[in-house]
Design a protein that fits this description.
Blueprint lengths: L6 H4 L1 H12 L18 E6 L2 E7 L4 E5 L1
Antiparallel strand pairs: 1-2, 2-3
């Protein structure tokens, strides 16, 4: 089995590259849909240093970051 060099788990520079190359370009799971079934239900969290907020509006989900 191949393992990454331990530096890949601890390096701030590699973490910054991962955030830019992976997390900023792909969909991220914020939580289960069952928590957003009714109008006004929301999930607030942080993903890769970015605050994320998702709320069930009248008829669909709305999301914001920042």
């Amino acid at each position: 089995m191949l393992n990454l060099d331990p530096l890949h788990y601890t390096s701030p520079d590699i973490h910054a590259q991962d955030v830019t190359r992976i997390f900023a370009r792909t969909w991220q799971l914020i939580g289960p849909a069952s928590r957003l079934l009714e109008r006004g239900n929301y999930i607030a969290t942080e993903i890769a240093g970015q605050k994320v907020f998702v709320v069930m509006a009248r008829d669909r989900l709305r999301a914001a970051q920042g």
